[in-house]
Amino acid sequence: MTKPITVLVVDNEPGFPELAGEMLERERDSITALAATDGTEALSILERREIDCIVSDYEMPEMTGLELLETVREEDRDLPFVLFTGRGSEEIASEAIAAGVTQYLQKGSGNEQYALLANQITNAVAQYRTETELRESERRYERTLTTLHETTRDLMRAETKAEIYRSAVETAGEILDVAVAAAYAFEPTDGVLEHAASTRRSPGRIDPERTFERGEGLVWEVFSEGESAYYEDVTCEDSEGLEAPCVDGEAVDGVEPAKRASRSELIVPLGTHGVLVAGTEGVDGFDETMTELLHILGANTEAALDRAEREQLLRDHDRTLTQQNEELTRLNHTNEIVREINHGVAQASTRTAIEETVCDRLAETDRYRFAWIGASDDDPPIPTAWSGIDTAYIDRIRDDGECAPEIDLVRDVLESSRVRLIDDVLETGGWQARRKAALTYGFQTVLGVPLTAGERKYGVLVVHVAGADSIGEREREVLAELGETIGHALRSVERTKAMLTDSRLELELAVSDSRLLLNRLSEHAPNAEPITLEGVVDRGENGIVLFLSAPTTAELASLEDAWASIETLSVVSEGDDETLFELTVTSTPLLSVLRTYDVQIRIATANGGTSTLILEVPQQVETRSLVEAIGEEYPESELIAKRETTDTPSARQLDTHLAERLTDKQFEALQAAHYSGFFEWPRESTGEDLASALDVSPPTYHYHLRAAERKLVTLAFDGTSN
Predict the structure, then answer these.
(1) What's the whole-model pTM score?
(2) Which of 69, 253, 435, 487 allows an S-S link to 453, with CB 3.0 to 4.6 Å?
(3) Which pLDDT does position 523 carry in this prediction?
């Protein structure tokens, strides 16, 4: 439909403006004519109405047509102005052209002149409108470019990607005047495109919870391809009659339709960061200029995102370096503290002294608020030593008992034998009861460190630190090593005390578990005759040698090849009723537990699949823990008796001094000779038998045995060793 043209006809001749206007309207349906009788009235109408063309007479009183033209040109240099006059001369025509008239037409007597005039008006207005639209388009393009430049500066000043996405979509909505503008950011962890920002002008059109997973929709398609795409209409029907995107009027099969937020969509990828989406309500709503502008905006946005990502990486790197420097400083401080603790522990001679020394050294530093130790002997494991904190807090832990969060932490550490960290007691579930105490005593981080020596667990060191999440990985590793050092120190003083005391515990256990090697061997002894463990020689990496006496009717010789648990099996000596066997095994769960708790086997006899074990236990070893450890390996175990025994001081001292003076090889040789009946008369074994059992040559074995005998005799008579 042709856009209407409003024409103002100015002439002082009565009735002529109306007549001329009527004739023009007859010639062109698009023309609407207004009449004025002089220049003043014409100017008044111009102020009130939008006029597309002026048709004016030349000779009029007060203001001629050219004077009216000059006045109009002061406001609009290009408004179409046709001089329609009865006076025709080259002079007037020349003057009119010089004044800037659009067309010059001399009045005639026929109706043909109005057809010519209507044609001139239509052409002049069409050209005027085209030039006006072009100038407006240029001005709009310049304004848009200016806006883009300003946006680019804003994008480059933005500190976060979120700000960049918001600025980009607001700019797209402003410069393109689109119904929908949105940005989707790629989340590499989940591998999806997440909603990052959208314009405020279209509420309800964009779902802020919307995500695009791999292969989903047009948005993901454009992002994965890395090429922008324009969809003129996203409401076409594909070959199956379903909605699908349209390209050049044809449906794209196999591609999911976009969300019905718009009819036409232009999607621009932002490198590896995401996509920028713009949509219009009408079909084919993007012209070449809009497309170019959105691509420019997309390129600027991608550059800004690249810059923001680099700066974020730099900030993260700087932050990491700062944290590493701070952690290194703390670590150096912690190492100094650990050295002081090690020195103090080395001088302590009792378990209490060791625990108090550790807590005191930690509490004296600026790094830690206070420290305490919960021993594994108690149930629940309540504090036994502390420093840097008043007794009110310790009493609170003891009063709360099973409900205390500290007790849960200690038990967790004991069960896992690993360091446990509470990053922030103010935010961690279960620690609400300690909120007031934490604020009062100034701590937020709590660390539990196991005190262990091998498989032995002596308790947990609990350290309270100011600030949340204030202990790094390296510091935890240093404190974990400190826990092992403390554990070994506790074990050392425990052993020393055991060597100096005369009192010992004897535990009698009945073990019916079929996995116990002694029980399995007893099944090969007929008539339920017993098999007895005479002695154990622990050779470390070379295995463990067991000396067993069994009835002569027991069929054990064939087990060496049949059982994987036995490396070697041989007969040491044969008597009338019993045979002495030597077995080499890698290890057994029972021996590993006994080694951990420094427990010795006094008697071990198996009969009909059940073994009776009598164990010699140091006083410092917790009986319950030992029995539980054996029960974990052999569930069918039962404690039969618990009794206290007393060794003579001389025998205990002799045993201690002998262990200190003999080498490992000499001690093995002496043990093997004793358990095999080498010192009996008549001898139940020979040196060659024992050399074979220990996998050494006979001369070597005799050398070690003689050296051990010499040191033993010297110690017994002189109290010294050569």
Answers:
(1) 0.44
(2) 487
(3) 83
